[in-house]
TrEMBL record:
PANTHER family: SENSOR HISTIDINE KINASE, SPORULATION KINASE A. It catalyses: ATP + protein L-histidine = ADP + protein N-phospho-L-histidine. Residues 162-232 form the PAS domain. GO terms for molecular function: ATP binding; phosphorelay sensor kinase activity. It comes from the Bacteria. Its EC number is 2.7.13.3. This is histidine kinase. It is an enzyme of class 2 (transferase). NCBIfam families: sensory_box. InterPro entries: HATPase_C_sf, HATPase_dom, His_kinase_dom, HisK_dim/P_dom, HisK_dim/P_sf, PAS, PAS-like_dom_sf, PAS_4. It comes from Halobacillus andaensis. Residues 416-621 form the Histidine kinase domain.
């Protein structure tokens, strides 16, 4: 490393060695009067010598014989501040090594010798006049000169005003600011720099930098300052103030007159950055070890900011492929769900939403996916955040459970049907046997046998109705009030014999709508018939219809004996009934017909207070 002479012209001999030591430059100091040579640690290491102080004759013996005369001649030059550069060779171990040796005459008979790799300028002497160290080296127009001249009067009112404003601005500068002159003396530091360095102005003014800060503790600082001076280019680095523990981001700006140091306290920023890194590491650890694929995308769903590793396992495609080209994800989604997924994505930009769909991986594997997403905001920027979860096993288990439930119901219903049919068959068989033994009595049992056959037929029809899949619905334009009137007239004989009154009221907004009249009639007949069977004398059945939010609500209300909570919970189970001769299949048949019309049924009842059955159907006009 070549140290420009203008930066050490004003240094004392010992200080020069310290500066050269910081820059890792091999050097030594010759005391001509005392015939001694002091080596810095870098040169001792380079020459493989354990001693750092030698007699001049011993030092000269290190060089080749033909170099000693030239060195001796340069040593005895009488002119101060002369610089001479010569080429020399030194035997180090078993190797002869060449150096370019720069010799600079200092004051008091001292000579600084700086070693560096050989150059083509060797054996050529150069005479250089060094400026007087007592003279102020700063031009009168520089900021350094203004801050240096604390005790100097301004040459003009304008210069004084500029100086005062610059010093005031520097004092309130939010970053640390310090200035060194060419003698490495601190000539200014603002309060922020005092706070960061832990020093006061009276402690550092006009003191050299290494008198204030230990070279060992601040080695990296000195290295960067020297580099800035050597290259005459700004240097940026980070370092820690040992006294205060503050992490500083430093910019060293060199000039011919010295160096300006700007320092920013980044301790809190570094802590926050470290915390963010740890948080990111934890998040990556979490997202990398969960089965769900986490993702973050832009509000327009066109750019993916993050995609966890689980995505590759779920979709069978490298996540980086989708990050670079997000629309390629749609190629994996089965066509029947594609529009549903796109619509769900738009909803996720506004509120939390989820969607289930199937994909076909590049390997041809079918999978069920559940996507959940919601809008999020961070520092004013909007995102959509979500999780994709493979639910293939859940779907398969659900399907198995549904099949198992259906099988259980079929088994239970088959047993119930067999039981229900067995009773009338036993009666028919008995009466036929009696008729065969007594022909005269045969006609008297004819009606009983026919009733039992009808009962068997009814059970078989209901069972067949339940076992059929959902058949296509033939929608027609119907008048609900006309259908209710028809049901009332149909059940009028039974209601009259039981002294039951049937009332009905229709919403004034109710108009004709599209439904299937056959199923609608049968639903009303079943519900009203069940209500009538729960009534005693002076019983009433009320049929009410209301249109609300594109739904037709039909309520059948009775004032019968009602049902307990336990009875309500079992309602709809195969062959569960509260009637003496009921099978329980009627309620199941009614529910199936309502399901066929995309409707819902709900029961409300209390013991002794009657029952209300509510049917909700789509109201399509």
């Amino acid at each position: 490393m070549v140290i420009k002479e203008r930066y050490f012209d004003h240094l004392y001999s010992g200080e020069l060695l310290a500066v050269l030591e910081v820059s890792s430059t091999p050097a030594c100091l010759l005391d001509v009067h005392h015939q001694t040579v002091t080596l810095n640690r870098t040169l001792s290491t380079e020459l493989m010598i354990s001693e750092t102080k030698l007699h001049l004759s011993n030092w000269l013996s290190l060089f080749q014989i033909h170099d000693r005369g030239e060195i001796y001649r340069v040593i005895h030059q009488s002119s101060e501040w002369n610089e001479t550069e010569i080429g020399v060779s030194i035997q180090i171990a078993d190797q002869l090594k060449a150096f370019s040796c720069k010799m600079l005459h200092l004051s008091n008979g001292n000579i600084a010798v700086i070693f560096s790799p050989p150059t083509n300028k060797t054996n050529k002497s150069s005479q250089k006049s060094i400026q007087d160290p007592k003279r102020n080296p700063l031009p009168s127009c520089t900021v350094l000169n203004l801050t240096e001249a604390f005790t100097t009067q301004a040459s003009s009112t304008r210069t004084s005003q500029v100086k005062d404003r610059l010093v005031q601005a520097a004092d309130y500068f939010p970053y640390g600011l310090a200035m060194l002159n060419s003698n490495w003396e601190v000539i200014y530091a603002n309060p922020k720099m005092e706070q960061m360095a832990g020093l006061k102005l009276s402690e550092y003014y006009r003191k050299k930098l290494w008198d204030l800060f230990s070279v060992n503790d601040y080695n990296s600082f000195f290295q960067h300052y020297l580099r800035a001076m050597e290259t005459q280019e700004p240097v940026e680095f980070q370092g820690e103030a040992c006294k205060t523990g503050i992490i500083m981001e430093v910019t060293a700006v060199p000039s011919e007159q010295g160096i300006t140091i700007i320092a920013k306290d980044v301790s809190r920023y570094n802590l926050q950055l470290e915390s963010m890194k740890k948080t990111e590491e934890r998040f990556n650890l979490l997202s990398s070890n969960i089965k769900e694929a986490c993702w973050i995308c832009s509000p327009d769903l066109g750019e993916l900011h993050y995609l966890s590793d689980a995505f590759t396992h779920i979709y069978g495609v490298d996540k980086h492929v989708i990050i670079n080209d997000p629309p390629r994800l749609f190629n994996l989604i089965d066509e029947e769900y594609l529009d549903i997924v796109k619509e769900a994505g738009i909803i996720m930009t506004q509120k939390e939403h989820q969607v289930e769909y199937t994909i076909t991986t590049p390997a041809g594997e079918k999978k069920w996916i559940r996507m959940r997403g919601f809008p999020a905001e961070d520092e004013g920027r909007k995102y959509v955040v979500g999780i994709d979860e493979e639910i293939t096993q859940i779907k398969e288990m659900s399907l198995l459970e549904e099949k198992s439930r259906q099988l259980s119901i079929i088994t239970q219903m088959a047993a119930g049907v067999a039981h229900e049919i067995k009773n009338p068959l036993t009666a028919i068989k008995g009466f036929l046997q009696i008729g065969a033994a007594n022909p005269d009595l045969r006609d008297s049992y004819h009606d009983i046998i026919l009733d039992e056959v009808n009962r068997i037929e009814s059970i078989v029809q209901d069972f067949m109705m339940l076992s059929k899949p959902k058949s296509s619905v033939q929608l027609e334009y119907v008048n609900l009030e006309a259908i209710i009137s028809y049901v009332s007239r149909l059940l009028d004989p039974d209601s009259s014999s039981k002294e039951v009154m049937i009332y009905h009221s229709c919403d004034s907004n109710l108009k004709g709508f599209y439904s299937e009249p056959k199923r609608l009639k049968q639903i009303l007949i079943n519900l009203v018939a069940n209500a009538m069977e729960s009534l005693g004398k002076d019983g009433e059945v009320q049929i009410e219809t209301v249109v609300q939010d594109d739904e037709l609500i039909i309520s059948v209300i009775d004032n019968g004996h009602g049902l307990s909570e336990q009875e309500l919970s079992k309602l709809g189970e195969p062959f569960y009934t509260t009637k003496e001769k009921g099978t329980g299949l009627g309620i199941m048949v009614t529910k199936k017909m309502i399901d066929d019309l995309d409707g819902q049924i709900r029961y409300q009842s209390s013991k002794g207070e009657g029952t209300c059955v509510t049917v909700r159907l789509p109201y399509k006009t």
